[in-house]
Design a protein that fits this description.
The chain has about 280 residues and is of the alpha/beta class. It is built from 10 helices and 9 strands. The site of beta-alanine has 4 residues, from loops. Homodimer.
Length: about 280
Amino acid sequence: MRTLREIPALREALADVRRRGERIALVPTMGNLHDGHLALVAAARERADVVIATIFVNPMQFGPNEDLDAYPRTLEADQAGLEAAGCDLLFAPEVSTVYPRPLEAQTRIAVPEVTEGLCGGSRPGHFDGVTTIVGMLFNLVQPDFACFGEKDYQQLAVIRRMVADLHFPIEIVGVPIVRAEDGLALSSRNGYLSAEQRAVAPRLYQTLGELREALEAGEATGPTLARGYARLQQAGFAPDYLELRAADLGPVTPTTREAVLLAAARLGATRLIDNLTLTLPR
Ligand SMILES: Nc1ncnc2c1ncn2[C@@H]1O[C@H](COP(=O)(O)OP(=O)(O)OP(=O)(O)O)[C@@H](O)[C@H]1O
Ligand SMILES: CC(C)(CO)[C@@H](O)C(=O)[O-]
Ligand code: BAL
């Protein structure tokens, strides 16, 4: 696997791939890779001749009080993991390569509606940063496929909307959440948890599971969500949100069947997200 740090080198490598008429799949990440990321690489490998991963801790999607500086940067271990997973090319640019001008002067992509509320509510500006970098990567790589995890459910919906609105000729592949044995969704941020917090963390998934069971059995949404919120607080979480939405992230109406429970909650300074899809009864 080759690691490329500069845009001209990336363009050159991709020109060769295109001349050969090969299909390209892109896996954008922020690095510190775990089995969730490697599942994205596997999904990419299934579909394309050439798999390109990117590692870039994107400053534009972090709020002023978020963990941009603390975010784990583990390039060597990531390179080994990607190579073993069958990745062909890694693009890992510097911030100054991606954003040669100050961030305030940078052209942005802003997706309306689906970015409102949930993580868009608790992390203002976050999704503009995500769509700007992902749109830029789509332009640089021009992949046939791009793979994203369902753990970041709203992010996936936002990217699908951007691709539709801006007519990117790219198939977006959603990959199911990879979990630890105790149910905790794998995340680079799990590494911030103390042993005590790590023992509590699976309660987020367990609570979503209990709520799903209740909602699928026809229990009323309001009291069920209120109970879940209280459970999370009792376990030691400070929830940012716990919501039931239609699967397309629109509001739940009496005719909604395919729905999703979404939560973001802090354990100490660590913000965890998770979601479970469900089918509401008639
Ligand atoms: N457990 C997981 N299962 C499936 N996909 C995942 C999982 N964790 C992350 N991904 C996906 O990997 C891609 C890169 O995510 P990212 O590098 O932010 O990893 P992360 O572990 O989610 O980190 P963070 O703690 O910053 O959320 C995204 O498409 C994300 O949805
Ligand atoms: C898609 C992404 C790589 C864009 O920086 C990031 O939001 C992530 O890791 O999910
Ligand atoms: N997994 C989405 C990247 C972020 O939290 O900024």
